[in-house]
Design brief:
The complex is a heterotrimer of chains A (93), B (484) and C (472). Chain A is mainly alpha-helical and 93 residues long. Chain A is built from three helices and two strands. In chain A, 34% of the residues lie in helices and 6% in strands. The longest helix of chain A has 18 residues. Chain B has a single domain, classed as Amidase signature (AS) domain (Amidase signature (AS) enzymes, Alpha-Beta Complex). Chain B has 16 helices and 13 strands. Chain C is an alpha+beta fold. Helices cover 39% and strands 20% of the residues of chain C. Chain C has 16 helices and 17 strands. In chain C, the strands form four sheets. Chain C has a nine-stranded mixed β-sheet with strand order 3-7-8-11-1-12-13-14-15. In chain C, strands 6-5-16 form a three-stranded antiparallel β-sheet, with no helix packed on it. In chain C, helix 10 runs antiparallel to helix 11 and helix 14 packs antiparallel against helix 15. The longest helix of chain C is centred in the middle third of the chain and has 20 residues. Chains in contact: A-B, A-C, B-C. Chains A and B meet through helix 1, helix 2 and strand 2 of A and helix 10, helix 11, helix 12, helix 13 and helix 14 of B. Strand 1 of chain A pairs parallel with strand 2 of chain C. The site of magnesium ion (MG) has 3 residues of chain C, from loops.
Chain lengths: 93, 484, 472
């Protein structure tokens, strides 16, 4: 079951706003999807997955050698050059 | 015959220059893209510049590299330096990457001609390209239908003759399903054989880049070029075997697994095409054995929980601070981030983020995420056993032909369930290909899927190629010759 | 009713690798804003991390130096939370399989502080607030850290301080971190609770985040102890919460309560593979570890015969301790070298950071040469001290300032004649000395030193003069 309170908590953790008027709809929809996901809980399976990863690769490493960083112009390209080299998080409000 | 080879033959014989060829494709795009909406960004300048380079090289008489001079498309979630890469989301609609994805780096070095970036479901979350911020892609076979998804644009670009091949990503069927809907070959390689570096993540442990092509041979040519070990991707393995030189290997005596459950309840016309395909293989000397997909019922939820959980984490970075959509007014940093996300991410994306957050939350982790991972390990283990006996597993690619416009978005669960044939390969990291196997009663293409063992991509391509060769005449309407 | 303090520490130590943990940008401190960044450490869409091999080596060494067990197989996890300084909205860290576990550090009292775990993780960027606007610089984002977590074994402010200082010294000695606290390369989260003495159950704890000064940590713990005791004494209840220390006011204040505590949704980082460290590698890393501070301390005290206080002062700075070891080689009296370093030489390095850097102009061999001359009585201590001053100023060897002739000193006959002359010409001083004024003797010796320009051996001269006076 998914409660409205849980949806509010999940939305908060997801950093998403939920309009009060769609809350009912989303709660219902989530409940349906969760019910669909619940199918797995009827299946018994106890594989050891502590270190499971799909390719079972170990130790893919970088060497500790410096490679030139990007220029701050490039880094800030999607923020029109930024503010004196910084990313602006927010203006005073 | 391979379209890629055909093009290179024409270029090397100087029957057409690469610039002329590129212009031809660009004018096709100009003419058709308004309607089918395969491309969201056309890179004419880039394409013509490279084409000129190729012509200069041809003039020197130097031999062309395997993908040199081939006009192609990239799905809009593959990072291209200085070229917008939007994932078809309002969030990234103006985002310009500052680095190249490894696959694009490889193709760039080969002087492949990038015609543009193709349409997709927002952040690859969908199966009909209807969740794209730039609108749906129509199926070139019949524009009342979608091209499928999430790589609908990639498939339509190839099916519409707007690219010789497309590179796309497949997380739960996003290459194979649109290829099947558009009458094309779609190949999802083994997880790890093609570098994921620069493919904008939907679900990191499921995503894989692969080609959408006209023919199996083209898929093999593209696969051989891009399946290279990449030090930038920790999960990269590359491939130990080239596939193109093994396409003609005999498949006499191989065992092909067939899944009964997939045939039960299948539409009659599609089932008939599947049975025909099986007969073709029997005629080629293959032995058909009945198998079952490991924990078949668990596959969809396992896929969905894993994909959403990873997506919820991967999508956290879209806060609008370093790039992406920024809201106008806010009172706090928290509110600003919430607004940036809520105002620019679509409904389906938000839904999957929420579901993933739910599956990972402390109260639900054991029941959903952890359980799904355990089942995933079981599924992988059981597949291994199947491939001790079978060379490949044969299934339909999708239980349906292309959806009519608007049909897919109605009931999410029903739509998710359509992925039942494609998701097992992603769950277990297996190579899988969709090959056209005829037209359904509604005259829409149907795809047959072959799933192979881990890193036996070459075998999948070989077995698919043998089928394609055998059925080429009967499926002629699905293949297009290059017109000069 | 008296209360007992219970403290556990989570210490973040920045590793001194050349490059960041998942990309190859430099870890250098400072720099123009966002000039040590690339698509990977900025978490740009589509990028993937790759672990720096050196980070694993350094984490294992940190574990070995603090008596931890090393996990052969470990993995990385994602800790999800949204904050502008974290460009991927998750920190790549280790959750349930940390690379090191179950270690301890022994304090000077002999008490051990257990180390629960040491894990690898990435640092975040830095927010800058200016005139109400907020900016961010990601140069620090992706710098590798180890987080060293103790059990709640600390019972006093002094123990906390000693633990941090020891830990800091160990990390410095084994070369895995510069541990410059002023640059934030060692930062502590402090968990504090109180309980009535004799009680076994722990009280509710509060956590003070992100402190990078030992002095402030001590003050914050002391304040928080008082605060919690006051609440309990007045019948109140402690709330589990995160607090911030305000060093201007010397108070702690609430940041957020447990109710809004984050749900970090840890899960395996799918973009990284398992980390395997073989027994052979562990052995190799162990063999590479230098002598640890407490080992040096024991040797200085028990083998070199230094007083405990002096030994502690020497080991406090790795470079000084190593310098001392070289400078005291083959000396009969190893304390002599320690005296020169802690006295005359330390005066040239008044601050902590100068001692830390210890950019001394002469190699330890030069100091050793000088002390050898003193030990063999070829020169006296005042000559030695003068020479050392000149050596330190110039970086030159002792032979530049003291000639063979100087070293020959004054032969005994000449000295005896001089002494007779001194007694004759200083009758007044001789009389007052004989009259009981010990001080007067000094002026007689002073006369001899003046006459010989410091070359005479004052000890020998004292003997002779006493002999002459005795005959009077
Ligand atoms: Mg931590
Ligand atoms: Zn970087």
């Amino acid at each position: 079951m998914v409660s409205k309170e849980e949806i509010i908590k999940i939305a908060k953790l997801s950093n998403l706003f939920l309009d009060e008027n769609v809350m009912e709809e989303i709660t219902e929809e989530m409940a349906k999807i969760v019910e669909f996901a619940d199918a797995i809980n009827t299946i018994v399976c106890d594989e050891d997955i502590e270190f499971d990863n799909i390719n079972q690769i170990e130790n893919a490493f970088n060497e500790d050698e410096v490679v030139e960083s990007y220029s701050s112009d490039e880094v800030l390209r999607n923020r029109e050059g930024g503010e004196n080299g910084y990313f602006l998080v927010r203006r005073r409000v | 015959m391979s379209k890629i080879k055909q093009i290179q033959n024409l270029l090397e014989a100087k029957e057409i220059s690469c610039v002329e060829l590129t212009k031809k494709y660009l004018s096709n795009i100009e003419e058709k893209n308004k309607e089918i909406n395969a491309y969201v960004n056309i890179t004419e300048e880039e394409a013509l510049k490279t084409a000129k380079l190729v012509d200069e090289k041809i003039a020197t008489g130097e031999k062309l590299m395997p993908l040199e001079g081939i006009p192609m498309s990239l799905k809009d979630n593959i990072s291209t330096k200085n070229i917008k890469t939007s994932c078809c989301s309002k969030m990234l609609k103006d985002y310009v990457p500052i680095y190249d994805a490894t696959v694009w780096e490889i193709l760039k070095k080969q002087n492949s001609i990038l015609l543009g970036k193709t349409n997709m479901d927002e952040f690859a979350m969908g199966a009909s390209t209807e969740s794209s911020y730039f609108g749906v892609t129509l199926n070139p076979h019949n524009t009342n239908y979608v091209a499928g998804g999430s790589s609908g644009g990639a498939a339509a670009s190839v099916a519409g003759g707007l690219a010789a091949f497309g590179l796309a990503t497949d997380t739960g069927g996003s290459i194979r399903q649109p290829a099947s809907f558009c009458g094309l070959v779609g190949f999802k390689p083994s997880y790890g054989s093609v570098s994921r570096y620069g493919a904008i993540a939907y679900a990191s442990s499921l995503d894989q880049i692969g080609p959408i092509t006209d023919s199996v041979e083209d898929a093999a040519i593209v696969y051989d070029s891009i399946s290279i070990y990449d030090s930038k991707d920790s999960t990269s393995v590359g491939s130990k075997n080239t596939s193109h030189d093994k396409l003609n290997s005999s498949i006499k005596g191989i065992k092909i697994g067939v899944v009964k459950e997939y045939f039960e309840g299948l539409r009659d016309d599609i089932r008939k095409l599947m049975e025909d395909s099986i007969k073709v293989y029997q005629g080629l000397g293959a032995e058909i054995v009945d198998i079952t997909i490991p924990l078949l019922k668990a596959n969809l939820p396992v896929y969905f929980i894993t994909a959403c959980a990873e997506a919820s984490s991967n999508m956290g970075r879209y806060d609008g601070i370093r790039y992406g959509y920024k809201t106008d007014s806010y009172n706090s940093i928290d509110e600003m981030i919430c607004k940036n996300r809520s105002e620019s991410l679509g409904k389906e994306v938000q839904r999957r983020i929420m579901l993933g957050t739910y599956a990972l939350s402390s109260d639900r982790y054991d029941a959903y995420y952890k359980k799904a991972q355990k089942l995933r390990a079981c599924i992988r283990r059981d597949f291994k056993k199947i491939f001790e006996e079978c060379s490949v597993i044969l299934t339909p690619t999708a239980p349906t032909t292309a959806y009519a416009l608007g049909q897919a978005v109605k009931d999410p669960i029903e739509t998710y369930s359509m992925d039942i044939c494609t998701v097992p390969a992603n769950i277990a990291g297996l190579p899988a290909i969709s090959v056209p196997c005829g037209l359904a009663e509604n005259k829409l293409p149907v795809g047959m899927q072959l799933i192979g063992n881990r890193f036996e991509d070459y075998k999948v391509l070989n077995i698919a190629y043998q089928y394609e060769k055998e059925t080429k005449d009967q499926n002629r309407s699905l293949w297009q010759e290059v017109e000069v | 009713m008296s209360y007992e303090l219970v403290v556990g520490l989570e210490t973040h130590v920045e590793l001194s690798t050349n490059t960041k943990i998942f990309c190859q940008c430099t870890t250098e401190f400072g720099g123009e804003p966002n000039s040590h960044c690339c698509p990977i450490c900025l978490g740009m869409p589509g990028t993937l991390p790759k672990l720096n091999k050196k980070v694993v080596e350094y984490a294992v060494k940190a574990g070995l130096a603090t008596n931890c067990k090393i996990r052969n197989l470990s993995k990385m996890d994602r800790k999800n939370y949204v904050y502008p300084d974290l460009p991927k909205a998750y920190q790549v860290t280790q959750f349930d399989k940390p690379i090191c576990e179950d270690g301890y550090i022994t304090l000077s009292s002999g008490k051990s502080i257990r180390i629960n775990r040491i894990h690898i993780e990435e640092d975040a960027g830095k927010l800058i607030h200016e005139r109400g606007d907020t900016y961010i610089d990601y140069n620090r984002g992706g710098v590798p850290l180890v987080e060293i977590v103790t059990d709640p074994d600390i019972r006093t402010v002094d123990e906390a301080v000693e633990y941090i200082e020891q830990l800091r010294l160990i990390m410095k000695y084994i070369g895995v971190s510069d541990v410059k606290m002023q640059e934030g390369s060692l930062r502590c989260d402090v968990n504090i609770s109180v309980r009535k003495k004799g009680e076994e159950k722990f009280g509710t704890r509060t956590e003070i985040k992100n402190m990078n000064s030992v002095n402030f940590i001590a003050k914050a713990i002391a304040y928080e102890f008082e605060r919690q005791v006051d609440i309990l004494e007045s019948g109140g209840e402690i709330h589990q919460e995160t607090r911030r220390y305000d060093s201007d006011l010397n108070i702690t204040e609430s940041m957020r309560s447990k109710e809004d505590a984050e749900d970090y949704r840890y899960f395996r980082e799918p973009d990284l593979v398992n980390i395997y460290v073989s027994e052979e590698e562990i052995k190799k890393y162990k063999a590479e570890l230098p002598q640890l501070p407490h080992e040096k301390l024991n040797i200085f005290i028990n083998e070199y015969g230094l007083p405990k206080d002096d030994a502690e002062l020497l080991i406090k700075y790795k470079k000084v301790a190593e310098y001392y070891e070289e400078a005291s080689k083959n000396l009969k009296n190893k304390k002599l070298a320690s005296n020169y370093i802690l006295g005359q030489i330390y005066r040239k390095f008044p601050t902590d950071s100068e001692k830390e850097e210890f950019n001394i102009s002469i190699p330890p061999k030069y100091l050793n040469d000088l002390i050898q001359l003193v030990e063999s009585r070829k020169i006296n201590s005042s000559m030695a001290s003068n020479a050392l001053e000149k050596m330190l100023d110039s970086g030159k060897a002792v032979t530049e300032f003291i000639s063979e002739k100087d070293m020959e000193g004054i032969d005994e006959n000449t000295l005896r004649e001089l002494c007779i002359k001194a007694v004759n010409e200083n009758q007044k001083a001789v009389e007052s000395y004989l009259g009981g004024k010990e001080k007067a003797f000094k002026s007689i010796i002073g006369y001899i030193m003046r006459e010989t320009k410091g070359k005479a051996d004052p000890i020998k001269a004292t003997e002779i003069i006493k002999e002459i006076i005795g005959k009077i």
